[in-house]
Hints:
This protein has helices spanning 15-82, 87-95, 98-108, 114-118. By secondary structure, the chain is mainly alpha-helical.
Amino acid sequence: MAPRGEPWDLDLEDPKEARDMLSKRMEEWREEARKQGLEQGLEQGLEQGLEQGLEQGRREGSEEGRREASFEILFSLITAKFGDLPDHARERILQASETEIREMARSVLVADSLEDVLGD
């Protein structure tokens, strides 16, 4: 007699049928548990990845904002003391590191020329 698929259809007098039915059920349960585990893992991974991505984006945005603010302050200081910036000076400042930007901003206070500020 072939397995019927439902436990209540099981012929308990046929041990092979009972074993086959249990084996089939166990395999179905394993597959279902595996799928649920994969879904949960994927969901958790996506959530964690999203959180990490948002945090990294905030950090990078904050760093970029500080850098832009440093540029604006330096441009304002230089413009106030020496007038409009030539293109070469603007490019030099935009290529500078944060440390160089801070040094340039400090030097504006005592510099006699734009070249003194830029270190040229």
